[in-house]
């Protein structure tokens, strides 16, 4: 076997090996440009087989076919590399390829000299190599030296392609020419693979950073909890600190920390999730968490179980979301729904009760003035006071009716309080208590003056009834965060927690003679004015904030 044969076999073997590698990578990653590269190297391998036959012995039709396939194959290479570099391929490549193919075929048909037949095609192929070298060196997004090596190899291959018409007749150079061509193409193939791996690695790092950025800046807590071989967190996003008061590092150090924060009444749900992950994980789990500062929040947990090949649950991916605000809103909606029900009942029942009560009250007063009933005067007074009390309950009951017409307009809240201030001041003095009004600089707001008077009277009366003689109810108005705030503060004993959780419900009261409708009316009026009610209560007293949106 001659050196010429060995050089061709070595070149063909290297080209075939590169084609096999590209086909394997395409099978792994399914990237279109890798598949096109694989096709290019396979076609290039097949065309190189014909190089073993001296050119004069190749038939005209075969030579035309080889030239056509070669140009088409190199256009395919340009298309694949453009995809790899994320650039659009110019249509000029197709036009020049078609023109050169026609020119070469005509030259072969008329038996033109080899230099005329082959040089235009070789020049086109060389230009493709030069273009590749320039694109990899100047436009490939990489700081490594690999792109320079690949670019130089492409340029070297282009130069070697141009020398073929001049050196093809030099017999001693032909084997070395094949070896040089094979080495350069091998460098191109291996270098391109390295750049592909580098490109994929950079994209993977970029995506990892993006996902990590999303996870670490998300308001919801994202976690991955491992069940096997040992319990523990593989990942928990930093937002867990805001949610529970404990940092991510504390959860890594103490695998059962999160479970210890679950409210005892809700621990069953998590235990059920671990024992029956497929069924329980189909819907979110709503539970209470006890924060580091001992406050209780509502959380919603969505989990996705991960199973091993044996079907055993080995870990959980999950998202925990703070839904305390949503829960408070649901409670408000429930409270307003109950108020709506009471209001509808009030419209139907009130008149049926008040009419007979008025009749009975009138006759009792009439009989009380009769001389023959003087000995029962105290009994009549007791009956009349009880009827008055029943009328008061019905009056407050009617105030819950939502079908009541309103006269909305722009009013000064301070002026409304000043108008009723003598009335509430007298009521406080009658019970050895006092009222202080501290007006702030506030703008006019859109409201119903009569209903706001009712709201203020109910709040003040509620505060007075919560205190012992000598106490003071303070009324303040001010602007906070652009909203107008009405504040009433008493110095009573505070509202018990179980009452505070349900405050605003009709007929809920701690007072011996209370109706339980005063605060329900307050909440109804506040809702009609799209105002928010906030309550802060403790052993030193209770503060009500009515926040009117400006």
From TrEMBL:
Keywords, sorted A to Z: ATP-binding, Kinase, Membrane, Nucleotide-binding, Phosphoprotein, Transferase, Transmembrane, Transmembrane helix, Two-component regulatory system
InterPro entries in alphabetical order: HATPase_C_sf, HATPase_dom, His_kinase_dom, HisK_dim/P_dom, HisK_dim/P_sf, PAS, PAS-assoc_C, PAS-like_dom_sf
Segments forming domain Histidine kinase: 348-550
Catalytic activity: ATP + protein L-histidine = ADP + protein N-phospho-L-histidine
Top class in the EC scheme: transferase
Domain PAS: 207-266
PAC domain ranges (all copies): 283-335
Membrane-spanning intervals of the chain: 6-27, 34-51, 63-81, 93-112, 118-137, 149-170, 176-197
EC number: 2.7.13.3
NCBIfam families: sensory_box
GO MF terms held by the record: ATP binding; phosphorelay sensor kinase activity
Protein known as: histidine kinase
SUPFAM superfamilies: ATPase domain of HSP90 chaperone/DNA topoisomerase II/histidine kinase, Homodimeric domain of signal transducing histidine kinase, PYP-like sensor domain (PAS domain)
Pfam families referenced in this protein's UniProt entry, alphabetically: HATPase_c, HisKA, PAS_3
């Amino acid at each position: 076997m001659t050196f010429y044969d060995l050089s061709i076999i070595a070149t063909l073997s290297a080209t075939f090996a590169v084609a096999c590698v590209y086909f394997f990578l395409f099978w792994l990653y399914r990237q279109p440009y890798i598949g096109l590269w694989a096709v290019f190297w396979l076609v290039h391998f097949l065309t190189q087989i014909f190089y073993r036959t001296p050119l004069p012995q190749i038939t005209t039709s075969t030579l035309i076919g080889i030239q056509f396939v070669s140009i088409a194959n190199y256009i395919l290479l340009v298309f694949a590399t453009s995809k790899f570099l994320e650039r659009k391929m110019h249509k000029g490549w197709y036009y020049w390829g078609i023109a050169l193919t026609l020119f070469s075929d005509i030259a072969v048909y008329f038996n033109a000299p080899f230099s005329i037949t082959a040089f235009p095609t070789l020049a086109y192929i060389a230009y493709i190599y030069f273009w590749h070298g320039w694109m990899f060196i100047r436009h490939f997004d990489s700081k490594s030296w690999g792109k320079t090596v690949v670019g130089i190899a492409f340029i070297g291959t282009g130069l070697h392609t141009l020398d073929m018409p001049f050196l093809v007749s030099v017999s001693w150079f032909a084997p070395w020419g094949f070896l040089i061509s094979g080495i350069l193409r091998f460098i191109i193939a291996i270098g391109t693979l390295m750049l592909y791996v580098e490109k994929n690695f950079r994209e993977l790092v970029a995506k990892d950073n993006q996902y990590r950025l999303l996870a670490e800046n998300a308001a919801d807590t994202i976690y991955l909890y491992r069940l096997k071989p040992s319990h523990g967190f593989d990942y928990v996003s930093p937002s867990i600190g805001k949610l529970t008061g404990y940092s991510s590092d504390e959860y890594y150090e103490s695998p059962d920390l999160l479970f210890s924060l679950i409210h005892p009444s809700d621990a069953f749900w998590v235990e059920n999730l671990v024992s029956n992950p497929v069924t329980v994980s189909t819907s979110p789990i709503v539970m209470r968490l006890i924060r580091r500062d001992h406050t209780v929040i509502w959380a919603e947990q969505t989990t996705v179980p991960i199973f091993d090949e044996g079907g055993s649950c080995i870990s959980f991916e999950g998202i925990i979301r703070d839904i305390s605000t949503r829960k408070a809103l649901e409670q408000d909606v429930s409270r307003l729904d109950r108020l709506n029900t009471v209001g509808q009942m009030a419209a139907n029942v009130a008149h049926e009760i008040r009419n007979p009560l008025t009749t009975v009250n009138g006759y009792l007063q009439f009989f009380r003035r009769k001389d023959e009933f003087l000995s029962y005067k105290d009994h009549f007074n007791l009956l009349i006071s009880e009827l008055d009390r029943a009328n008061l309950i019905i009056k407050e009951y009617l105030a819950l009716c939502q079908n009541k017409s309103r006269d909305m307009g722009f009013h000064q809240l301070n002026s409304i309080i000043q108008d009723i201030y003598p009335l509430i001041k007298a009521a406080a003095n009658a019970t050895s208590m006092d009222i202080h009004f501290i007006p702030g600089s506030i703008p006019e707001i859109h409201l119903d003056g009569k209903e706001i008077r009712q709201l203020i009277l109910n709040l003040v009366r509620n505060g007075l009834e919560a205190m012992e003689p000598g106490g003071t109810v303070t009324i303040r108005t001010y602007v906070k965060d652009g909203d107008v705030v009405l504040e009433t503060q008493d110095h009573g004993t505070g509202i018990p927690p179980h009452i505070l959780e349900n405050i605003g419900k009709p007929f809920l009261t701690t007072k011996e003679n209370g109706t339980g409708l005063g605060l329900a009316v307050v909440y109804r009026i506040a809702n009609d004015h799209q105002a928010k009610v906030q309550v802060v209560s403790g052993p030193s007293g209770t503060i009500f904030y009515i926040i009117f949106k400006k």
